[in-house]
Amino acid sequence: MEKQTKSGKKTKTLEELETKYFGKRGTTKRERYESQIQVEIIGELIKQLRKDNRLTQTQLAKRLGMDKAYVSRIENNLKTQRLDTILRILKVLKGHLFIRIPNKGGQKEVELI
Question: What is the pLDDT of residues 23-38, one digit of tens each?
C-alpha cells in the first residue's frame, strides 16, 4: 500500500518491494530470496553472539575443531549450514535456538538448545 510522505513522495512497504522484485509469496524466486535472507540473519546472529562472548573467529574455530575460514564463511553467509553445525556453534557460545512451528491449534515452540 503506497503512502505519501509529508514532502509528497510516494513510499512502498517492504512487502510491496519484495513482491515487485522477487514475486508473490510461494513462487520459486520468492522462496529462494526468503531462504537466503534467513541464512544471512543466522550468520549475522552467530557473529554478534561470538563478539558478545569476546571471542575471535580463530578462538571459536579452535573450540569447535574447525578452521577459522569455515567460521568466517558461516558468519559471512558464504556457506549454508546444517542444523547440527548451528547447534554446535550455539552450544559453544551459550546461545539458544527456538523454533516456532505453526499448526491448526496455534503455534508450537521448541527450544533446541
Answer: 999 999 999 888 888 8
Rounded CA separation 33/11 (Å)? 22
Question: Closest Cα partner for 67 from 93, 41, 94, 85?
Answer: 85
The yes or no reply on domain 10-111 and CATH 3.30.420.10 is no
Vertex 107 angle, CA 103 and 108, to 5°: 100
Evaluate whether 55 touches 48 at the Cβ level (below 8 Å).
no
